[in-house]
Amino acid sequence: MKNVTIITGLAVVLAGWLTLSALRPATSLPTAAVATDSVKHDPTTGLVVDERLTLVVAQCTACHSSKLILQNRFTRDGWKEKIRWMQRTQKLWDLGETEPVVLDYLVKYYGPEQKAFDGRRKPMPAVQWYKL
After folding, report:
1. What does the pLDDT read at residue 19?
2. Phi-psi category of 46—alpha, beta or left, where left has phi over 0 and alpha has psi -120 to 50?
3. What's the CA gap between 76 and 17, in Å, rounded?
4. What is the pTM of this model?
């Protein structure tokens, strides 16, 4: 009788597990999402892979993490100003002939994003306020 109770309990647990696993959403990405992101990322740094990646990694990540690049979006002038700031205050060396190549890479992949709507509430239109 004890064995029957244990087997029945295991059958109930198995049935519950099968039911829950059928209801669980799929863990793989939809095919459309994978197809739209055709840019490859370096697994070590997270930076976009192209022919300039090795140079950018050598010049930029010798002193800091690539996460500082990933979390910022600047124009060419903005990236150039960050380089100048690092040279003035952080003892960054002169990038010489590699600077334009590094800037081209940074602007191409980490320049300002052009988004129609950033998820925030849109500004209120001009409102005629009245005195209380």
Report:
1. 45
2. left
3. 54
4. 0.60
